[in-house]
Design goal:
InterPro entries: AAA+_ATPase (IPR003593), AAA_22 (IPR049945), ExeA_AAA_ATPase_DNA-bind (IPR052026), P-loop_NTPase (IPR027417). It comes from Lentibacillus salicampi. This is AAA family ATPase. The chain has 2 domains: 163 residues, P-loop containing nucleotide triphosphate hydrolases (Rossmann fold), CATH 3.40.50.300; 73 residues, Helicase, Ruva Protein, domain 3. It has a 5-stranded parallel sheet with strand order 2-3-4-1-5, sandwiched between helices. Helix 9 packs across helix 10, helix 10 runs parallel beside helix 12 and helix 11 packs across helix 12. It is of the alpha/beta class.
Length: 263
């Protein structure tokens, strides 16, 4: 397909380098809020529907953290429990976890304070897929953030999940956790104009020699994908293949419609 269209690479993939990512308004806002939370050692909540770019925003943040200033850990585990959390953090930072959960929790607290006070670095912990967390794991967030009688925080904690996580945290018995969130943002889909710009940007990144989607194709892709980047990628890749099989150099609305029918 690359040779047929005269491109220098494969567009609409997950492997695109962070410096080549399309910077939508939602992505800019998410990054700015997470960056602020990290610099000020805050508890941050990032939510958004599947495919809106939460993990991509986190990846950009991680790649820009200066290792001289920060110690970074990303955990993506829908079945995360308090015990697994402490073990994972301790092991990733080179400490053998104690067998008893209470002892592992003390190790964790000592570790975070040591990194902040002695190494002069800020620990940054990101927990993804948080909308799957059990109530006990959500309750544990209060203790994960509790240092010196809850008078200070040596770390930045960012939890990432789908919009249902916001509703989970609004129930009465989780109010203490909800109140601790100092920074929050909900990512949204691309607008119609951003969707067109996103597609053009992806094609430019692989040096496509000419316009490869008709105006009607742009409109159809937005209509079917609702501007969700992951879905846009799927429609564009499949529509390009459909056009290739028909020997067409430009994707038309008929190609996009055919892909939609197959899906």
């Amino acid at each position: 397909m690359i040779d047929f269209f005269g491109m220098k690479g494969v567009p609409f993939t997950r492997e695109i380098a962070t410096h080549q990512l399309f910077d939508s308004s939602s992505h800019q806002e998410a990054f700015a809020r997470m960056e602020y939370a990290v610099k000020n050692r805050m508890f941050c909540l990032l939510t958004g529907d599947a495919g809106t770019g939460k993990s991509t925003a986190v990846r950009v943040l991680a790649e820009q953290l200066d290792p001289i200033q920060y110690r970074y850990l990303y955990i993506c585990d829908s079945g995360l429990t308090p015990k697994l959390f402490y073990r994972e953090v301790l092991q990733c930072f080179g400490i053998k976890p104690a067998f008893r959960a209470t002892d592992a929790k003390r190790q964790y607290q000592a570790l975070m304070l040591d990194i902040y006070e002695n190494e002069k670095k800020t620990p940054v912990i990101i927990l993804d897929e948080a909308h799957h967390f059990t109530e006990s794991m959500l309750q544990e967030l209060r203790f994960i953030l509790n240092f010196k009688g809850d008078s200070m925080s040596p770390l930045a904690l960012i939890i990432v999940g789908q919009p249902s996580l916001r509703n989970q945290l609004k129930v009465k018995h989780l109010e203490a956790i909800e109140q601790r969130i100092q920074m929050r943002y909900q990512m949204v889909a691309l607008t119609e104009s951003e969707t067109t710009s996103y597609i053009q940007y992806q094609l430019k990144a692989v040096e496509a020699p000419h316009e490869m989607f008709s105006e009607e194709a742009f409109q159809a892709i937005y209509q079917y994908s609702k501007g969700i980047p992951r879905k846009v990628n799927t429609f564009c890749s499949s529509s390009l293949m459909d056009a290739r099989l028909q020997g067409k150099k430009i994707v038309e609305k008929s190609n996009v419609d055919r892909v939609m029918n197959e899906m």
